[in-house]
Automatic annotation (TrEMBL):
GO terms for cellular component: plasma membrane. InterPro entries: Cell_Envelope_Assoc, DUF218, Rossmann-like_a/b/a_fold. This is Uncharacterized SAM-binding protein YcdF, DUF218 family. Residues 44-190 form the DUF218 domain. Keywords: Membrane, Transmembrane, Transmembrane helix. The keyword NADP does not apply. Coiled coil: none annotated. The keyword Aminoacyl-tRNA synthetase does not apply. It comes from the Bacteria. It comes from Geodermatophilus poikilotrophus.
């Protein structure tokens, strides 16, 4: 009897481990697949997910996102570009403000720019953008972020009431090497599963919070 019970427990534990492994692998595969897509439907706004800025100057990761958003705007994907993101303790500028200033200097009209200066991570930012969309009667967006961040950003945007597609940037440090890509996929897999399980976000490296 004890042997049978032990065998049953072993099978149950083995099945649970296998289920967890399959969940992690399927999620990582979905993140990889989403990263390879590029959806650019006509939308109410292009939303640029914030990243680090230094005294008002966007980091290389953030700059790559902003340049991609500018290209989408010039192609007529949306009439407005929304930059989003708050600031860390001690910062003088928010990510959203830095992004808006960068695009204005690139020649975009102030009327075509909206800075949503809230959010210390993706979840907070998407909720703030959702509120801004509600105020303006907007419903659809093309999200610009790093490829590996796209699936989680889309999910959080949808949960905030936005019909979201993503057009990930193909430039910048987040996509330079296979080692970097692998590391980002692992982090995003953990962050996405945490969000789906708890409804919470996790702050961390650029594109992970």
């Amino acid at each position: 009897m004890g042997v049978r019970a032990g065998s049953l427990v072993g099978r149950v534990v083995g099945a649970l481990v296998l289920a967890v492994v399959l969940l992690v692998v399927s999620t990582a595969t979905a993140i990889w697949w989403t990263a390879r897509q590029d959806a650019q439907p006509a939308s109410d706004a292009i939303v640029v997910l914030g990243s680090a800025q230094y005294n008002g100057v966007p980091s290389s990761i953030f700059e790559a996102r902003l340049e991609h958003a500018l290209a989408l705007y010039e192609q007529g994907v949306a009439p407005v570009v929304v930059t989003v993101g708050g600031k860390a303790d001690g910062d003088q500028f928010t990510e959203a403000e830095s992004g808006r200033a960068y695009l204005a200097e690139a020649g975009m009209s102030e009327d075509a720019l909206l800075a949503v200066e809230e959010g210390v991570d993706t979840l907070e930012s998407m909720r703030a953008v959702g509120a801004a969309f509600d105020e303006r009667g907007w419903s659809s967006a093309v999200l610009v972020t790093d490829p590996w961040h796209a699936m989680r950003a889309e999910r959080m945007a949808e949960d905030a009431g936005i019909t979201a597609d993503s057009s990930p940037t193909r430039q910048g440090p987040a996509v330079q090497t296979r080692a970097t890509q692998f590391r980002y996929i692992l982090r995003e897999t953990a962050a996405y599963l945490l969000y789906r399980a708890t409804g919470e976000s996790v702050a961390g490296a650029p594109g992970i919070g």
